[in-house]
Amino acid sequence: MGQLKRSAKRTDLRSGYTTGACAAAAARAAVYALLTGHAISKIGITLPNKAQASFQLARLDIHQTGVLAGVIKDAGDDPDCTHGLEIQCFAAWQEQQGFKLTGGEGVATVTLPGLELPVGEPAINPVPRQNILAMADEEWRSHPAHLRQASGVRLTIGVPGGEEAAKQTINERLGLLGGISILGTRGTVKPYSTSAFASSVRQSVQVAATNGLAEVVLTTGSRSEKAAMNLYPHIPAIGLIQAGDFIGIGLRSAKRYRLQRVALVVMIGKLSKLVSGRMMTHVSGYAIDFGQLSAIAEECHLPVKIVDQIAQANTGRYVLDCVRDQPQGDQFLNRLCYEAWQHAKQYINNALYVEVTLIDFNGDQLASSGDVSTPNSRGHDE
């Protein structure tokens, strides 16, 4: 399988290749064997980012009806549910001129509008689709015409085990049924890359908007999503979007696709960062400003002892424990929601209605931006 060179430092993480790159390699190998009748053990391709890469073939089976080539997906050190899957291409002659790209076992089919692909098409995204066809065509043109037994070739991309792996993705919620998507705009995978997650948030909002939703709920994980299902029972699954650390991406996408309302359902750690206007809330990013939280606690007339404890805190959960049993605790938590609401509104230039809800670690609602007693806050967007 294709591998990028390891860095000399052991602490460095190893990069890998996308499903799209693996599919392009399998397609080129299959076309080669279809034309020549010869087996090979590896194949080189040009990635979408124009870099060259070589892939070891897991299989190259020559049949009377065509050629089946396979490449094992190597995601490097990225936590990817497709790592280790075999990305296959079956190449067969067709009378139609040129190449016809289809999806086989384990490749999802598009069933909802709003994606980059039409309903009914296999979920092979535009960039990898172009790369697959380009590599197949390059191999086709590199051999003499007398080897061609027909005018064109049908390429069927398959991923055994893809349907099971897709259960770990949001594909079903996006209307991508029956398997995984063939993805990759560069061809390479950077370990723990944030770009793929951010892209999935944008795509989820786009699908929700395209399918007629005027409101979505952005959550930060499975627990907050479960709570959101109870808080917003009228929102269908397609409108419940796990934005993770990318609340800002979700908000801007909602503005871009002209939604009317966005609800944020968060826990104390993420909320504490939103209070400071940090729309990127990853733990390795900006830290919680406990001084700011302490100042808000003082404004809410919490006891001096509690104010000092918050100033010295090192986690949002500790802050929550400090105020949970205080008479002014609810006021403080509602105020945090209100501060986060203000920053969220500013982030999208007041383009749509926003509300912020804080839940505890059991999923119960603790506070809301609509419950704070602040001048001119009632109704927020009225």
TrEMBL record:
Q: Which GO terms describe its biological process?
A: anaerobic cobalamin biosynthetic process; methylation
Identify a single GO molecular function assigned to this protein: cobalt-precorrin-5B C1-methyltransferase activity
Q: What is this protein called?
A: Cobalt-precorrin-5B C(1)-methyltransferase
Pfam families, A to Z: CbiD (PF01888)
- SUPFAM superfamilies membership: CbiD-like (SSF111342)
What HAMAP family does the record tag this protein with? CbiD (MF_00787)
Please give the catalytic activity noted in the UniProt record. Answer: Co-precorrin-5B + S-adenosyl-L-methionine = Co-precorrin-6A + S-adenosyl-L-homocysteine
Which NCBIfam families does the UniProt entry name for this protein? cbiD, PRK00075.1-1
The pathway it acts in is: Cofactor biosynthesis; adenosylcobalamin biosynthesis; cob(II)yrinate a,c-diamide from sirohydrochlorin (anaerobic route): step 6/10
Task: Give the species.
Answer: Reinekea marinisedimentorum
EC numbers for this chain: 2.1.1.195
Q: Give the UniProt keywords, A-Z.
A: Cobalamin biosynthesis, Methyltransferase, S-adenosyl-L-methionine, Transferase
Say which family it is in: Belongs to the CbiD family.
Query: Which domain of life, per UniProt?
Result: Bacteria
